[in-house]
Design brief:
Length: 361
């Protein structure tokens, strides 16, 4: 799992004066589920298409399995792609759709049938080989597209937002199935998505992209709990931001103060520039809690509850506090016996120092 199957060095892509990708360096490991995550227009699909050979970089190098891909067409690369619209042939049945790429191999009928049946079993479509391509549900179309890509036994499977057209329940089901399938076949999957929860739930590692650049590459838990910058923190889930002042520092620690937290000391993060000045602290809403009358916390913030939204398993409270331009967002898991809080109530919000994340500008 330590050998890169894909190495990208100094890759840029320009469309006239517009820079879609700006000097990308990235390694993707053998056998990992890797996601490219970011807002629309950040360059993630452009990068995926260049890996697959559907587009050439303006500069830089792409290596797959330690071989340069310069000038190689998609069908000459050890990759296959599942497109966003699946590209199912409506005039062919499921078996012929899945086996379409095999025909160039000139297998005999028995070999062809065996490979197709194996691919259908792998994606849970056994017995549906004779169904017409136009008779498939959204989930079945997605499975056919996967089977058609995997039957060619690529070293890397490229997935361009393959779940975006599915409803929420089916999308969540297919996320689990895709992850199971990747573990079963053991090849590298690269997923492009703008859905943070999709990337976090499925991936071994995630690259977060903004404006043609990679902002952070890390496992999902690190991306979420220790975002490298305010942009990454803001894009992944809810995040409260608190402005603080750096009052003292050394090579290991920063001493900060803010109207909300008072004086605190935090470990210096890699890449955090030296020099006294302003800093930003992040706190995830679920790391905050509304304190009961007899409860205490290492850090307590008094505020006024002015809004709440019920989401079933959790309730999100908005608490206005002095010294912060934005209200604090507090996510509380719903359970029996919890306090009924009304808008206008004065509340205390508690947190541990470990909930505070020092963010790069």
């Amino acid at each position: 799992m330590n050998t890169p199957i894909i190495s990208i060095r100094g890759v840029s892509r320009h469309f006239g004066a517009f820079t879609a990708l700006d000097n990308i360096d990235l390694d993707v490991k053998q056998g990992e589920f890797f996601s490219l995550l970011g807002p629309s227009g950040c360059g993630k699909t452009t990068l995926l298409r260049m890996i697959g050979g559907f587009m050439e970089p303006s500069s830089g190098k792409i290596m797959i399995d330690q071989k340069p891909m310069d000038g190689l067409a998609p069908n000459q690369r050890p990759t296959n792609m599942v497109f966003q619209n699946y590209a199912i042939f409506p005039h062919l049945n499921v078996a012929d759709n899945v086996g379409y790429g095999l025909r160039k191999l000139r297998l005999d009928k028995a070999q062809f049938t065996a490979r197709v049946q194996e691919a259908l079993e792998r994606v849970g479509l056994s017995g549906l080989g004779h169904r017409g391509g136009h008779e498939l549900s959204g989930g079945q179309r997605q499975r056919v597209a996967l089977a058609r890509a995997l039957i060619m036994q690529p070293k890397v499977l490229l997935l361009d937002e393959p779940l975006s057209a599915l409803d929420k329940k089916l999308r969540e089901q297919m996320q689990l199935e895709l992850r199971r399938l990747q573990r079963a076949v053991g090849i590298t999957f690269i997923l492009v998505t703008h859905d943070q929860y999709e990337a976090l739930s499925m991936s071994d590692r995630v690259a977060v992209m903004f404006k043609g650049r990679i902002a952070q590459v890390a496992p999902p838990q690190d991306i979420y709990q220790r975002p490298a910058s305010r942009d990454v923190a803001d894009f992944l889930g809810g995040m409260n931001f608190i402005e603080a002042q750096i009052e003292a520092e050394d090579a290991l620690e920063l001493k900060l103060a803010s109207p909300l937290t008072g004086p605190i000391t935090l470990a210096r993060r890699d890449g955090f520039a030296q020099g006294l000045g302003k800093a930003t602290l992040g706190i995830r809403p679920e790391r905050l809690r509304i304190l009961g009358p007899k409860e205490t916390a290492p850090i307590e913030i008094t505020g006024t509850l002015y809004d709440k939204v019920y989401y079933g398993e959790v309730t999100h409270y908005s608490v206005a506090v002095r010294g912060n331009t934005q209200p604090l967002q507090v996510a509380v898991t719903n359970s029996s016996g919890g306090p009924e809080l009304a808008a206008g109530s004065e509340v205390k919000v508690g947190l541990d120092r470990s909930a505070l994340v020092l963010l790069a500008p």
